[in-house]
Write a structure and sequence with these properties.
Layout: E1 4-8, H1 12-23, E2 27-31, E3 55-58, H2 64-74, H3 79-85, E4 87-88, E5 93-96, H4 98-110, E6 115-118, E7 130-132, H5 140-150, E8 155-161, E9 164-166, E10 176-177, E11 188-193, H6 195-207, H7 215-218, H8 228-232, E12 260-266, E13 273-276, H9 285-292, E14 303-305, E15 308-314, E16 334-336, H10 346-364, H11 377-387, H12 411-435
Parallel strand pairs: 1-2, 1-7, 2-6, 7-16
Antiparallel strand pairs: 3-5, 4-5, 8-15, 9-13, 9-14, 10-11, 11-12, 12-13
Length: 436
């Protein structure tokens, strides 16, 4: 009889974790409450559904996100190859057709005869080897259970989702395809605004009606997904130098530069819908239609999905987890992976599922998985999750968590050096694991 492992949650972390365990000969019983019980942001019951965006960010080695992907490829990540099979054009970023990606993940899991998917909510834990990967939208019952388990009040912050519009409803006479500085071909659809148009849009954006948040909720907004209207309130140029920056963009037909440019990214392979890049929002639905309709190319836009804010739950991991995502005080093998653990981002969640799955497999075999080295993004994130000294907040992959590279003055060369060091460290780590 094969050892059965429970994976609670069918998101990115849970799916990656399950595949890692299945590859190592374990039977996996995955619990997913959707679609029987929904969340405030998911639209389907699909496994590995991408909620906020269809982008898994850059693949360039000069970025932390690109370095992390390269590390995970070396470590045998299961989901990244599937994502690349479902990619849609987006320059140097890895963006996917959400529906195709979910179906690809489900097909991969279903290909293992020892995989079982149970559609029900889990409200209790037993002594079975378990990975909890219910995500930041975990059910109230599971959140309460985890709060009791960790001995701490659970933490939380509020996240936002960007709208999606129909491609056929965009006024193409006021838009053009192209990437910044000519890179990426026609991967992005650019919606230019001149100064007067931008200023009118800005005035309405900062004064538009939002869904009411309580005071404590306002304090918990996550900077990585700051609503566009909140970002704009920091100053008229904040978003113009952020998601609406016109730098490196010029209308190929007229040669004209705009004062501000909104970028749209394909949402699927068919290219019949686009999401507004960087336009996470908490505006009411009518206000989204009115204010975003002030962008000239979106005057008659059909919104297939409006932006929405939702509560993300995460635990106080430094008091609860070790660097392999194992619950320290649990006698039974118990791991918490994904954004629930405090990693923030799609690929970061995949990473946590990979590490937790590998660590659990080693534990069941009577071995101890060594933590990844801190010189790589994977190891730096694991160290942060388990060892942040104070003011613990969700963390994305970023170069700031890596040991400092000194002696290189050129900024681009220094970024590439981070990648070289990280990839070398992960290669040595992989060799170490193979020797165990």
């Amino acid at each position: 009889m094969k050892k059965v492992v429970k994976v609670i949650g069918g998101g990115l972390a849970g799916s990656e974790c399950a595949l890692q365990l299945l590859r190592r000969g374990y039977a996996v019983k995955m619990y997913e409450m959707r679609p029987i019980k929904g969340t405030g942001a998911h639209k389907t019951g699909d496994l590995a559904e991408l909620v906020c965006s269809n982008s898994l960010k850059s693949e360039e080695r000069s970025t932390a996100s690109g370095i992390l992907k390269e590390e995970l490829d070396i470590l045998g990540c299961a989901l990244l190859p599937l994502a690349r099979e479902c990619r849609v054009p987006s320059g140097s970023a890895l963006s996917v057709d959400r529906e195709k990606f979910s179906k690809a993940v489900e097909k991969e899991l279903a290909g293992y005869e020892d995989f079982q998917l149970v559609r029900e909510e889990v409200t209790s834990l037993d002594d079975a080897p378990t990975v909890v990967a219910t995500g930041p939208l975990t059910s109230p019952a599971m959140a309460e259970l985890l709060g009791e388990l960790t001995g701490k009040d659970r933490l939380f912050f509020y996240d936002a989702i960007a709208p999606i519009v129909s491609a056929s409803s965009v006024d193409m006479t006021k838009a053009y395809f192209g990437g910044r500085y000519g890179k990426g071909g026609d991967d992005y659809l650019n919606l230019p605004m001149q100064k007067e148009e931008y200023e009118a849009f800005f005035r309405e954006l900062v004064s538009a009606k939002t869904v009411v948040l309580h005071d404590f909720e306002k304090r918990e907004l996550f900077d990585g997904c700051m609503p566009i209207e909140e970002m704009a309130k920091r100053g008229s140029d904040t978003i113009r130098f952020g998601p609406l920056k016109p730098v490196g963009l010029r209308n190929p037909s007229t040669g004209e530069r705009a004062y501000a440019v909104v970028q749209l990214r394909r949402e699927n392979v068919a290219g019949d819908c686009f999401n507004l890049v960087g336009f996470q929002t908490n505006l009411t639905y009518p206000e989204q239609k009115r204010v975003f309709g002030m962008i000239p190319a979106l005057k008659e836009a059909e919104f297939l999905r409006y932006g929405v804010m939702h509560r993300n739950t995460y635990i106080n991991s430094p008091d609860v987890l070790d660097a392999l995502f194992r619950v320290i005080k649990s006698e039974a093998p118990l791991y918490i992976a994904g954004q629930l653990s405090g990693v923030e981002g799609y690929v970061e969640s995949i990473m946590s599922g990979l590490i937790a799955g590998r660590a659990l497999a080693y534990e069941l075999e009577g071995k101890k998985l060594p933590p990844p080295p801190k010189e790589c993004v994977t190891g730096a994130l694991c160290a942060y999750i388990s060892g942040c000294a104070q003011d613990f907040k969700p963390m994305n992959a970023n170069l700031g968590i890596l040991p400092t590279v000194s002696g290189i003055r050129d900024k681009k060369a220094r970024k590439l050096a981070y990648g070289d060091i990280a990839v070398r460290a992960v290669g040595e780590y992989k060799a170490q694991l193979e020797a165990l």
